[in-house]
Amino acid sequence: MAMKKLVNKPENLVQELLEGFALANPGKVALEGSNLVVRTTPKLKDKVALVTLGGAGHEPAMSGFVGEGMLDISVPGEIFAAPGPPRVVEALRAANRDAGVLLIVLNHAGDVMSANLAMGMAKKEGLNVKQVLTHEDISGGPRSNPDERRGLVGCLPVIKVAGAAAEQGRSLDECLAIAERMEANMATLALAVSGATHPSTGDVIATIADGEMVVGMGQHGEAGGGTQSLKSADETTDIMLAALLEDLQVKAGDELFVVLNGVGSTTLMELYLVLRRAGQILESKGIKMARTLVGEFLTVQEMGGFQMCIGRLDDELKALWDAPCNSPALTVK
Amino acid sequence: MLDAIGCTEMSAMLRGAAAQIRDNHELLGKLDSVGGDGDHGITMVRAMSHLEKAVDAASGKDLKSLLHDVGWGILGVDGGATGPLLGMFFMGMSEAAEDIETLDALGLTDAFEAGLAGVRAQTKAQPGDKTMVDALVPAVMAAGCAAEDGGDLLSVLRDAANAAAAGAAATKDMQARFGRARNIKELSIGTPDAGATSVSLIFAGFLKGVEANG
């Protein structure tokens, strides 16, 4: 399959996409320093700042989460590749304030290494920084082995609630505790129905045969069941939601958010069918679908499929979820 | 006769490594496209241009600064795990070169060992996991053995290069347990690891660099 993408020179891809991204969101985000994505209206210095890092090619993530009530700075890397520690340190310095900085890291090898090295350097410089790691992909391994679990779209709810807490003037330790509580109460499973190509190299990222789909990574035959025959929206939802509810040990009476994140070529129409079915299942079990988010937040180029992320909400997390935010990828009024 | 590695010789080694990577970057991309996303070749070429920029700018500096600047340059490559791993190899070597003007055979192996420690602080990957560690560990061990046996600098570099090449070749039959390639399980068997191959090219380049320089 030859790549069919509108790109210019591969080596300029990230620079060009960031310039376009900034133009598309005037009054919200701007580029600063070595391509750090920052808010155009900075947060007051007496409030905790939120910073994240991550490879490009997943638009609108992660820079699309920069804005009031969300992130202060995002450090975009190369296509699908984490930024190195020097630019992460630059971001931590730029965000530095007495109130402190919370670094949100998705569990992928490169991101974690860069973040850890940058945290070490920042602490040596006396910066007040703390880190939260998101790893909610249940297909990676059991809950008891979080290292094996990747960070997927669950970063969005974590950024949302921690960002709202920071905006309210909560302390760094409080923001960290809220982020960790949200993180510990989430579970995500990814479905892929068709592959994608790397926009720089043209290489195929994943190959999924006609008539097949992949639920989770299926590395050890765990949650989701891996490669199987393509199923209907309802049947697919049944499989995925059952695995998520089991992993998170959701009980009747619990209140959940459901995030459906289209990863590229799966349509909103399909995502609505999935959400409808998820709503039916939760209602039948006496579980409340308290909040929903449906759209494209963290994509993988033209890959077909979506990520289903559920999370248990308490009253405080619900209030933080409902707090206003204004970012390119998510606005709450 | 190479009897000491100072800034000039180290610069030649580093440029030799960059040349080896550049000559073979298409192979690296091809190896990576099996289990990864095929960008290891272009990432390594970017890393090597950062390396060369640091070498160019380091003239007149001491060994420690040269290696530090090379490491810092590679850390800044924005290439996922490759930057931190390779960058910390040179940062580790730099720490071992504190207050040292030139390295003899034992000094060089000490520096390699410090570089390896820098890498291993970043990853839990062990030999056998099909990563760059599979080339790096035997290379550093072989260098140590050669130096302890009284070998000169050239034989240290030659043994290290041979061991790195053998280590990289041996990853062909391994199943990946780290990095993106682990997602394809047994399908990763049959293709050498791209990161280990890069390390073997770097050690081959170290040797070629000093040979060409001598």
Describe, in plain words, how this protein is organized in 3D.
- The complex is a heterodimer of chains A (333) and B (214).
- Chain A has 333 residues and is an alpha/beta fold.
- Chain A has two domains: 10-184, Dihydroxyacetone kinase, domain 1 (Rossmann fold, 3-Layer(aba) Sandwich), CATH 3.40.50; 187-323, 2-Layer Sandwich (Hypothetical Protein Tm841, Chain: A,domain 3).
- Residues 218-222 of chain A have low confidence and may be disordered.
- Chain A is built from eight helices and 14 strands.
- Chain B is built from nine helices and no strands.
- In chain B, helix 2 packs across helix 3, helix 4 (63-75) runs antiparallel to helix 5 and helix 7 runs parallel beside helix 9.
- The longest helix of chain B has 20 residues, at 194-213.
Order of helices and strands of chain B: HHHHHHHHH
Kindly state the percentage of residues in helix of chain B: 55-70%
User: Radius of gyration of chain A from the CA trace?
Assistant: 19 Å
Low-confidence stretches of chain A: 218-222
Shape of chain B: globular
Q: Let me know the number of strands of chain B.
A: 0
The proportion of strand residues of chain A reads 15-25%
**What is the CATH domain class of the largest domain in chain A?**
Alpha Beta
From the 3D structure, determine the CATH topology of chain B.
Serine Threonine Protein Phosphatase 5, Tetratricopeptide repeat
- In which order are the strands of the major sheet of chain A placed? 1-2-4-3-5-6
> How much of the polypeptide of chain B forms β-strand, as a percent range?
under 5%
Which shape of chain A, going by the Cα principal axes? globular
